[in-house]
C-alpha cells in the first residue's frame, strides 16, 4: 500500500489559507533548478546574440532577418519569463497576485507574437519562392517592420482583452495563498484556440506546401537530364539558390516550432496538466519554452553569418569603429 507523500505549507504562518506543496528530496530539487535555470540562461543568451547580430551588422538588415529578429525577441522574452516558471517548480507562488497575472498575460502575449512571426516568415518565403520577380517590391524592410510592430501590438491588445477579468481583480480565482491561477472564459478560450493556433497553423502549412512544390519544380528545372515546361524554367532562373536555402532553414524552424507548440495547445482541448511533468509545471509548457532555445542552434548550423557574428561579439571586435559594416556574409 502506497504511503501519501509528505506535504508542507507555502506560508506556515497562515495555517488556514496557505496552499500546500509537496516535499521533494533535496537532490531532486537541486537537479530541477540546475537544469531549468541552465535552459533559461542558454535561451536568453543565444537569442540575445541573434538580436545583437541582426541589429548591429548592416549586411543583415534584410526583410527576412528582421522577421528572425522579431522571433528572437520573442524567444529572448521566453528565456526571461522562464525564471517565473522555475519559481513554480516548488508548487508555491511567492510574488503576489498582481505579478502572477502580469506574468500569465506576458506568457500569452509572447506565445501569440511567436505564432504571428511564424506566419509572417511563411508569407515571406512564399513570396520569395513563388513570386521571385516581385519579391523586392512586395517585401521591403519598411513593410516588414510595420508588420512585425503590428503583430506585437495586436498580440498585446488581444491578450489584454481576454485577460481583462484577471487584470481587473488579480488573484480572483486563487483558492489559497501561494497559488497562481488565471481563468479565461470558455468561449474566449475556444476562440483563442482557433485564432492563435488552428488558423495560423493552417496558413503556415498551406503556404509551405506551395513553397515545397515550387522548390521541387525549380530543382527539376536545374537538372539537365529532366525535361520541364518552359514556364518552370523561366521561374527557376529567377529563384536564387540562397532563397531556396533560406526556405529550407526556415522550414526546419517552423517544423520544430509546430512540434513543440502542438502539445501545448492540444492539452488545452482535454484539460491542463494532462501530460506527465517532472515538476508541477506541465511537460508541454517546458517543451514550448525549450523551442526558444533551439532556434538559435538551428541558425548556428544553417547560417554561417551567425557563427561569424558571434565570434566578433565574443572577441569584442564589435566595439571597434565601423564594425557594423563588417563583411560577415
UniProtKB/TrEMBL annotation:
Record keywords: Cell membrane, G-protein coupled receptor, Membrane, Receptor, Transducer, Transmembrane, Transmembrane helix
Gene Ontology MF: a single term: trace-amine receptor activity
Q: Which domain of life is it from?
A: Eukaryota
* Domain called G-protein coupled receptors family 1 profile: residue spans: 46-299
One Pfam match: 7tm_1
What subcellular locations does the record give? Answer: Cell membrane
What is its membrane topology?
A: Multi-pass membrane protein
Residues annotated as transmembrane:
30-54, 66-88, 108-127, 139-158, 193-213, 249-266, 286-306
Q: Name one GO cellular component term.
A: plasma membrane
Family statement drawn from the similarity comment of this UniProt entry: Belongs to the G-protein coupled receptor 1 family.
Please report the name of this protein according to its UniProt entry: Trace amine-associated receptor 13c-like
Provenance organism = Betta splendens
